[in-house]
Specification:
The complex is a heterotrimer of chains A (about 375), B (about 425) and C (about 260). Chain A has about 375 residues and is α/β, with parallel strands linked by helices. Chain A is built from 15 helices and 8 strands. Chain A has a domain of about 150 residues: Rossmann fold, CATH 3.40.50. Chain C has about 260 residues and is an alpha/beta fold. Chain C has one domain: 2-Layer Sandwich (Nucleotidyltransferase, domain 5), CATH 3.30.420.40. Chain C is globular. The chains are: A alpha/beta (about 375), B alpha/beta (about 425), C alpha/beta (about 260).
Chain lengths: ~375, ~425, ~260
């Protein structure tokens, strides 16, 4: 499908897309690092929100600023910033996530110029009234900072429009998730991954339009019979920027039916209340959404949510894709594993780097895991 | 009951005396540190019997409200330092790894999580908490660590969320943290089953402030040449301002310590007998190698006269308003050294370089502490650019002795000292100087 | 039925022939840089060993890192499945397999039917693999084959605490300089590798009885140290190096 080629190109070479986009539309591009970024506000300001992933190149420049015990996502983002390959960015937004991102923001601010730099220090707590109030306050501050940086005014009406667009995108993406689990053949793993990545890069209106067409097509396709013996997998973790993961899993006899990834369902989950004041609606979605391990709400929320996910989609097992040196995820792993063990849900832990290791190690692990399910 | 207490005292006494004997030899009357800590830990361990509540609190957390309500504060990080000093870190970290915790996680957390399940460590484990207080001003790791302990011990957890101050302290942050202080007080009230003592906290606040002033004065004495104490002494004496801040014991101890230092200054006694070179230390100490490091640098006639770690416990006094203690602790606990931008940290480092007139900067690149270690390379470059002094980075871990390569670090220190010696030899300031 | 199993590892390629419930031939060669050629060669050589021709073999299964390169195999399985099948055949009571190879180490839990229940792999870090021992053997200038025998003489193993192979090598050199006895250093090295491996095992919980396979299983010192660390007897597979190939051949009988 032509649409897939377009998405694939954007996903494999986002920078070319961005440069072309700037040339053609004259709009600004704002980079961001985290799913808690209120893209609606950036979009309402007339700029393109652009997710920063790590790097596909080797890491050299970042070594001058960050030690080796820093995760490859953060080192990769810094590498891209320092290399000049991101000079099409007009600015960058750093929401508070974890200790590493926190320091990345400082180091970026001191070394990557001349774009504007906005820190958005969101609350870590997402379960109290004062945290909710602070979240709304800080979104208000962000709106003003962004207006100042871009030299625009963000009105309630542009925000409402932005919210509507994002609600539509998210609803369609969640629909696609469900459809794909039933019709894996209609959408290859690579294509699926390209769509997800394109969602965080492409002109959102164009993306919405094309996505709508794809979903309509997929809806029409007959529910394909999943090969007998295929095991249903739930993925859990942070970022997944490996386009090959879905293919590897499928070649090993599995299929991903759901995930709680930061660049997956957590990014698309949730609907904003279009009747509420815009910033409050944005804040509420973050409070209601499945939580990132770098945030704090209930003590066993994530574990319970993963179990529910497994039950709802009748999954056979869970695969933890944890980025090496990612502390929040690594701290959560033992208790979630314990909960899964109690429910007799098999699971496997994968220590990942931003780059897929050579030598078929991933294939071996997935094949074996799926065999024993 | 008597037997239990005496057993506990014996364990603590043996540990403290053994580990800190080498330091106490230099200061004859320092047995009071041992006494104070012994009483402190034994009181905490027998809290069940004396009907007192025990709270586990992070090293950067506001302890004054707890003290005002007679809750005994325990610091797992201080315990972590003791574990490191006893060289038990590697073993406990391994236990945590066997429980499924990645070996890349903070070694304080790993050691403590393991310790709780096996009652390990040098004093047979920490007393069980009745409540947990976690302030994330120092890092995000403590949040995860305390969530784990909250699940394990099944006790209430209070999180004080102090948003990171990259470039300043905003009104939004001030409002948020201030509301949380109220929530914190309600939390303590619920845990203790009685109303918060606002009068008492004023007194505790006053003592806390005084303690911090005294600690600053003690650290200031190292500006003298030769420094009467080194950073390694500061690492040892730090324990009280961390664990007993707000109590009168701290005032007495530091007053005596300050007098001792002034006496040594008067008699020209230095921590390093033949101090020729003065250095600044950055990051949490390598707890399992403090003696080795002191000796290594002393063998080069070098004294680590100051550090960025111990000064953190008197670094935010300027934000405290004694007459309005409860209000001002919001800002004081938010704007600590680890909760500010790298450039602001670099400014403070430069100020210390000037104040203590140091010849070199030693940075401990600590695997376990990302907020402290990430940004060090930039700080190093800023220091080299602004002050032109040699800098040395040592890669290790504060508690896990398995991540220490002695021969490599030894070589690096030797090479660093060679550079410092050469520079000092040829420096114009050296003409006719005593160095 | 006659089946063959071919295990292509990164250093060595192994083959085994299984005939009516019996292992009749095994072969080990170096893989070299061409996995496909190594697969062909080791198969041909094991046939010669068994006095058979290709036409005598009913089914072939490939396993190991280079399993996909064996084009003539009927199917491929991961080495975890293969090791499980091999160990279960040798001793159906085995519930845990510890495999320490040249480049990686793994642990496998089996159920009572010999099926894999759980597994854990270390393929990123040299510590806990044969590579660790090679590095140390060079530092000590001792033949790796003699490690087991020499360490038996030790009454007080040296303590080597570094997590990282490079650090540990540095530590060993310091011990040599300090004049520590060779047997004590080697015993310490064995304890170090046992420690790494048991940490990995703890992630899935080792169950008795346990069997050790892989090249390092031939080192009696490591087996002893591991046994002590785990507090249990460990059976050493008589076919330690070729267990994967045997398992693959056995898996072929189920096809």
């Amino acid at each position: 499908m032509k649409k897939f080629t377009e998405f694939k190109n954007i996903a494999t070479d986002p920078y070319t897309y961005c440069r072309k986009y700037k040339e053609e539309t004259g709009k600004k591009i704002v980079g961001y690092t985290c799913s808690y970024t209120p893209e609606e506000i950036i979009y309402a300001a007339g700029a393109l929100p652009f997710r920063l992933f790590g790097t596909n190149e080797g890491i050299h420049r970042a070594d001058m600023h960050l030690q080796s015990y820093c995760c490859s996502l953060v080192r990769g983002i810094l590498e891209e910033g320092l290399s000049g390959r991101l000079d099409f960015l007009d600015g960058a937004v750093f929401p508070h996530t974890c200790d590493s991102i926190q320091r990345l923001s400082d180091i970026w601010r001191l070394n990557v110029t001349p774009q504007f730099h906005i820190d958005l220090v969101l609350p870590v707590k997402l379960n109290t009234t004062s945290a909710r109030q602070y979240l709304i306050d800080i979104l208000e501050k962000f709106k003003k900072d962004l207006e100042h940086a871009l030299g625009v005014k963000i009105t309630d009406s542009t925000l409402s429009d932005a919210i509507k667009t994002y609600n539509q995108i998210r609803a369609l993406m969640m629909r696609l998730y469900t459809l794909r689990a039933q019709r894996p053949e209609i959408l290859s793993g690579q294509d699926f991954h390209s769509i997800i990545k394109a969602a965080m890069i492409m002109d959102r209106q164009l993306f919405l339009k094309t996505l709508g067409e794809i979903v309509a097509q997929v809806e029409k396709a007959p529910v394909s019979k999943i090969k007998p013996g295929t095991k249903k997998i739930v993925l859990t973790g942070g970022i997944c920027s490996h386009p090959d993961i879905y293919d590897i899993i499928e070649n090993a006899g599995g299929i991903v039916v759901w995930d709680d990834l930061c660049t997956g369902s957590r990014y698309f989950e949730g609907v904003l209340d279009e009747k509420a004041p815009p910033l409050e609606a944005i804040a509420q979605r973050y409070l209601d959404r499945d939580i990132c391990p770098a945030k704090h709400a209930g003590l066993t929320d994530r574990g319970e949510s993963i179990i529910q996910m497994v039950r709802k989609h009748q999954a056979d097992g869970v695969v933890f894709m944890l980025l090496k040196f990612c502390d929040p995820h690594a701290f959560d792993y033992p208790y979630i594993k314990e909960m899964l063990d109690r429910e007799n849900i098999p699971c496997m832990l994968l220590d990942m780097e931003e780059q897929i290791p050579s030598g078929g190690q991933l294939q071996t692990r997935f094949e074996t895991f799926i065999q024993i399910l | 009951m008597k037997k239990q207490i005496s057993e506990i005292l014996k364990i603590i006494g043996i540990f403290l005396f053994g580990k800190f004997k080498k330091f106490t030899l230099r200061f004859k009357k320092s047995k009071s540190m041992k006494d104070i800590m012994m009483i402190y830990y034994s009181e905490a361990k027998s809290a069940r019997l004396t009907r007192k509540k025990v709270a586990w609190i992070t090293s950067g957390g506001p302890v004054e409200p707890l003290i005002a309500m007679d809750v005994i504060p325990i610091y797992p990080e201080n315990h972590g330092a003791m574990i490191g000093a006893s060289k038990m870190g590697g073993g406990l970290c391994e236990t945590a790894e066997n429980m499924g915790y990645s070996s890349d996680l903070c070694s304080y957390a790993r050691a403590d999580i393991a310790c709780a399940t096996v009652n390990g460590g040098p004093i047979g484990g920490l007393p069980k908490p009745d409540m947990l207080v976690c302030c994330n001003n120092i890092c995000g790791t403590v949040l995860k660590w305390y969530e784990i302990q909250a699940r394990y011990f099944n006790v209430p957890l209070f999180v004080l969320d102090t948003p990171f101050c990259h470039t300043g302290y905003s009104n939004e942050v001030a409002r948020y943290v201030r509301s949380q202080i109220n929530e914190y007080i309600s939390f303590i009230e619920r845990a203790c089953g009685r109303k918060f003592d606002y009068d008492r906290v004023k007194k505790v606040g006053h003592l806390s402030f005084q303690g911090q002033q005294l600690w600053q004065a003690v650290l200031d004495t190292a500006a003298h040449k030769p420094a009467p104490m080194s950073a390694f002494d500061a690492f040892y004496h730090l324990a009280l301002i961390v664990t007993l801040r707000g109590t009168p014991e701290v005032i007495d101890y530091y007053t005596a310590l300050l007098a001792k230092m002034k006496d040594r200054i008067a008699r020209g006694i230095g921590a390093v007998p033949n101090e020729k070179y003065r250095l600044l230390w950055d990051n949490i100490p390598i707890w399992h190698r403090t003696r080795w490091l002191y000796d290594k640098f002393a063998s080069h006639n070098a004294c680590l006269v100051a550090d960025t770690y111990t000064s953190a416990w008197c670094g935010t006094m300027k934000y405290i308003d004694e007459s309005n203690f409860i209000d001002s602790i919001a800002e004081a606990y938010t704007r600590i050294y680890l909760n500010i931008g790298v450039d602001e940290m670099a400014k403070m480092v430069i100020a210390m370089i000037d104040k203590y007139d140091v010849d070199g900067f030693v940075l401990h690149s600590n695997r376990s502490c990302k907020p402290y270690s990430f940004g060090q390379m930039d700080i190093q470059r800023i220091v080299e650019k602004e002050r032109g002094i040699p800098c040395l980075m040592i890669e290790a871990d504060m508690v896990d002795e398995r991540s220490f390569s002695e021969s490599q670090i030894s070589t690096r220190i030797d090479a660093f000292m060679e550079i410092i010696k050469e520079r000092k030899k040829h420096s114009p300031a050296n003409a006719g100087a005593k160095g | 039925m006659r089946t063959a199993g071919i295990d292509i590892g990164s250093i060595t390629a192994k083959a085994a022939i299984f005939d009516n419930g019996k292992i009749i031939a095994t072969k080990v060669i170096f893989t070299g840089y061409n996995a496909e050629l190594a697969g062909q060669r080791v198969y041909e050589e094991v046939l010669i060993e068994a006095g058979l021709a290709k036409v005598d073999i009913d089914r072939i299964i490939s396993t190991g890192y280079g399993r996909k390169a064996v084009a003539f195999a009927d199917k491929s399985f991961t080495e975890i499945m293969a090791h499980a099948a091999g160990a279960h055949f040798l001793n159906p009571r085995i519930r845990s397999i510890i495999d320490i190879g040249g480049q990686d180490s793994k642990a496998i839990l089996l159920d009572d039917k010999g099926k894999v229940k759980n597994f854990v792999m270390n393929d990123k870090c040299a510590a806990g693999t044969g590579r660790f021992l090679e590095v140390m053997a060079r530092a000590l200038e001792v033949n790796l084959d003699e490690f087991g025998a020499i360490s038996q003489k030790s009454a007080a193993p040296s303590k080597i605490s570094s997590l990282c192979t490079v650090f540990a090598e540095s530590e060993v050199i310091s011990l040599i300089a300090r004049g520590e006895k060779r047997q004590d250093i080697i015993a310490g090295i064995h304890e170090s590798i046992a420690s790494r491996v048991s940490s990995m095992l703890a992630r899935i919980g080792v169950q008795k009885p346990a069997m050790i396979t892989g090249g390092v299983a031939l080192n009696s010192g490591v087996v002893l140290a591991l046994s002590k660390k785990l507090g249990m007897e460990i059976e050493v597979s008589p076919y330690a190096q070729v267990n994967g190939a045997i398992g693959a051949a056995i898996l072929a009988t189920f096809l």
